[in-house]
Amino acid sequence: MSDNRLIHDETAGIERLLAIMQRLRDPQTGCPWDLEQDFSTIAPYTIEEAYEVADAIERRSWEELKGELGDLLFQSVFHAQMAEEAGYFNFQDVVTTMSNKMVARHPHVFGDETRDKSAVQQTRDWETIKAAERAAKAQSGTLDGVALGLPALLRALKLQKRAARVGFDWPSAQNVLAKIAEESAELVEARDALTQDDVEDELGDLLFVMANLARHLDVDPEAALRRTNAKFTRRFKAVEDKLAAIGKRPEDSDLDEMDAFWNEVKAEEKARA
Q: What's the domain count of the chain?
């Protein structure tokens, strides 16, 4: 059983958190919910916590970020505890693996290589080192190692970056825009004449090319979409406020009225900019 003194010692740092996790998973005295979990049930929470970290950063809420980073750290501790119970590895192994990786990937900081090179060259060197790591894992294909569990838009971007490194890429954004027009036309055709599976397939193609356009424009598509989500949320809330001012809710209104208020909100934002 974990030492109660350590668990209640607020100065104990990571060792305290590890002891808390061990107690939560103790078969005799632990939490029933924590004991029921496994890697697959915890994984969605891990992803959710990573997004909440990104959300706190987006909102520049630094006090919340402290808590969200703690939540994300706890996810690593949870997975490591389950791995130790199964005999796979422990938290210290995680720390050692990460430390070794960072030292190996930064020879210009921790080794004999010079730091006198551009960020672009350092990025190329980083990719060369990662390619060697994949080769050591027998991941010989260009797209090997791109995690299946990534959000689809982010995975599309990573797949395209990998393909571009070996020359499988459009020369410019203009070529991508032409492809977007082509995929849009195919989507209309699918909508009018084909099955729902065909529509899904064509929409996926269009989204994939949109991610490629973002890459060519040096825009993070996830960040761009988060920004648009925030803008939509802000503007729709303003529309609701305008409706409330005349004693209405959205369900009491219609599209024409809400669209007129939407345009008012956009104009007001533009005037403030």
A: 3
Q: Which residues contact 58 (CB under 8 A, 6 or more apart)?
A: 226, 230
- Residue 149 main-chain phi, psi, to 5 deg: -85, 0
pTM: 0.63
Which tokens in the block code for residue 235? 């503007």
- Grouping H, G, I as helix, E, B as strand and the rest as coil, residue 29 is coil
Q: Could you tell me where the DSSP H helices lie in 87-116? A: 91-105, 107-110
Amino acid at 45: Y
| pLDDT tens figures, 88-115 | 999 999 999 999 999 988 888 898 888 7
Q: Which residue has the higher pLDDT, 187 or 78?
A: 78
Q: Which helix (H) or strand (E) holds 127?
A: helix 119-136
Give me the percent of the chain exceeding a pLDDT of 70: 97
**221-245 helix and 152-165 helix, angle to the nearest 10 degrees:** 150
Q: What is the pLDDT of residue 9?
A: 94
- Residue 173, domain CATH: 1.10.287.1080
Q: CB-side exposure of 203: number of CA atoms within 13 Å?
A: 9
